[in-house]
Design a protein that fits this description.
The complex is a heterodimer. In chain A, 40% of the residues lie in helices and 12% in strands. Chain A is α+β, with helices and mostly antiparallel strands. In chain A, a hairpin with an 8-residue loop joins strand 2 and strand 3. In chain B, helix 1 crosses helix 12 and helix 11 runs antiparallel to helix 12. The chains are: A alpha+beta, B alpha/beta.
Chain lengths: 84, 451
């Protein structure tokens, strides 16, 4: 009986932790809101739902991997680029 | 007298002593637990008030500050030590600022850099007359941000001095938005809002972004709305040059000169104002080792400031009561993770030893009450900050902050021990610079047009 109580308690704790962290793991695995928040005037963001954006090792010259056809992009110099 | 009686007497006396000692220890632990629970509950109440205040204010239309055409001369200082990977984009942004160039000058402080920072700055100065470069040698420079800024202050001409870290990327109207607050003559310093640019990089940057959202969108904003003590963060902000000169500039012995200046300004009878619309991108630390180094410096520096200003704030005649209360809470904030853990341990010991003055039920209620929110960027502050920012799912990461809170407990503990050792040994410790790698550069420099 005591063993069953212990097992039950253990399973209960594991389940509670899983439920608590599941949304975080889902968002980390497939980010739907990876940011960053837009603040610069010339930033452009495609309409929601934003596609997942996977960035691999920016520090080591990685590339942005497009997981879908639509993607996030930033154009701070859009005005100067078009005027050239 | 019989020797066995003597032995019995001494043993009895010893047991009596132990009993009295144990009773005293239990009494102290009970007192400690109750006091710490009250203090921590005060912080929770403070965060609750902040969150509600910002929520209510968000329903009212924002009224821009009345400036009556206030347009003072401005000097922007950019201290930079080995920032070749990031400084280029900031310098480019300096030429895009919409503030009148006749009233603006930018001083880049090449603080004993050993990379191309100085050369990049010189090249930018050649192209833009508002930019000039101050090169510091290895003899004078490399001693921290406070030292770099103090050196540049001697050359600053602007009535208002703004500071940006080299990895920052401001909005083109940021100068107007920061300066507008100085139209109020009581404002001695202003703080804008940093937003994490490299948020998508990894889990560390995403958690740091959450912390920033809670800290700035809600915490700082609430302190501004309630007339409390918004903190000058050392970057994306500025101060009146005259006030800073009158108080002798930044204290170079402090690890967090920004927190030090905040309290100096309040003690001098002025205030710090938070400008939530003055936003600027920053590069967050991208791994837990860098996070440790950065937060360790913040914690240690903040504790230094707490020791320096606790009594001064308490006895100040220039601060209002609400500013004093909030100021004292702000000063001691980095002690709170330690207090939380110690009180948890004390309570657990007392309840297991059966010596608790309150029942197990009350203990559970109290522990649950403050254990689940911690004290660093409480979850409900972050949730509301995320909601007000119009974000969709980033708050799903909030449970991960439990780990960053536990990590911060270790950081604060180590910082406290290092500070004590520094006081005993008479050394401040080195100013550990946060390395910037240009993680957000890819997002800015490689625009892609959607098909």
């Amino acid at each position: 009986m005591q063993e069953l109580t212990l097992i039950g308690t253990f399973l209960g704790i594991v389940t509670a932790l899983f439920l608590m962290f599941m949304p975080a793991l889902m968002e980390l695995k497939r980010p739907q809101d990876a940011g960053p928040r837009l603040i610069l005037e010339n930033f452009v963001m495609l309409p929601a739902p934003a596609p997942p954006l996977v960035l691999i090792d920016l520090e080591a010259e990685a590339q942005i991997i497009l997981t879908h056809e639509r993607f996030l992009f930033f154009l701070p110099n859009l005005e100067s680029a078009f005027s050239e | 007298m019989d020797s066995s009686l003597l032995v019995f007497d001494s043993e009895f006396a010893l047991q009596n002593l132990y009993r009295k000692g144990a009773v005293m220890i239990v009494a102290i632990l009970n007192f400690f637990f109750v006091c710490s629970a009250l203090i921590i509950s005060l912080y929770i109440l403070r965060h609750y008030i902040f969150t509600l205040t910002v929520l209510r204010a968000s329903k009212r239309p924002r009224i821009p500050a009345v400036t009556d055409g206030y347009e003072p001369s401005v000097t922007i200082l950019v201290p930079a030590h080995n920032e070749e990977k990031v400084i280029g984009r900031l310098l480019k942004k300096m030429s895009e600022l919409s503030y009148p160039t006749s009233k603006l000058d930018v001083i880049i402080i090449d603080d004993a850099s050993t990379d191309q920072t100085g050369q990049i700055a010189d090249a930018a100065a050649k192209e833009n007359r508002t930019i000039c470069v101050l090169h510091r040698s290895r003899l004078d420079g490399g001693k921290g941000k406070a030292s770099a800024i103090n050196a540049a202050l001697k050359q600053a001409k602007g009535e208002i001095v703004l500071c940006f870290d080299a990895d920052y990327l401001p909005h083109s109207e940021i100068v107007q938005r920061l300066v507008a607050k100085f139209a109020d003559p009581k404002v001695g310093a202003v703080q804008g809002r940093p937003v994490v640019l490299n948020e998508p990089q990894n889990s560390t940057t995403r958690i740091v972004a959450l912390e920033r959202i809670g800290g700035y969108r809600v915490d700082q904003e609430a302190r501004e709305l309630l007339g409390l003590v918004p903190q000058f963060g050392g970057t994306v902000g500025g101060f009146r040059r005259s006030i800073l000169e009158s108080i002798g500039g930044f204290d170079e012995s402090m690890l967090t000169e920004d927190t030090d200046i905040t309290f100096q300004i309040y003690l001098a009878g002025y205030k710090v104002s938070y400008a939530g619309d003055a936003e600027c991108y920053e590069e967050a630390v991208a791994n837990w080792k860098a996070y440790w180094r950065q937060r360790h410096r913040w914690a240690k520096g903040h504790m230094q400031v707490a020791f320096k200003y606790f009594t001064k704030v308490l006895l100040s005649k220039n601060m209002r009561l609400r500013e004093k209360i909030d100021g004292l809470l702000l000063l001691n904030i980095y002690f709170m993770p330690l207090l939380t853990i110690f009180s948890f341990a004390a309570g657990l010991f007392l309840i297991l030893s059966g010596e608790f003055i309150i029942s197990a039920l009350w203990f559970t209620i109290i522990m649950s009450f403050y254990s689940f929110v911690g004290n660093y960027a409480p979850f409900f502050e972050i949730g509301v900050g995320v909601y007000l920012d119009g974000r969709r799912r980033v708050h799903w990461l909030a449970p991960l902050m439990i780990f960053s809170f536990l990590y911060n407990v270790l950081i604060c503990g180590k910082a406290f021990l290092d500070l004590l050792w520094g006081i005993i040994a008479g050394c401040r410790g080195d100013w550990e610079k946060t390395e910037h790698h240009g993680s957000g550069n890819r997002l800015i420099e490689n625009p892609k047009i959607p098909e």
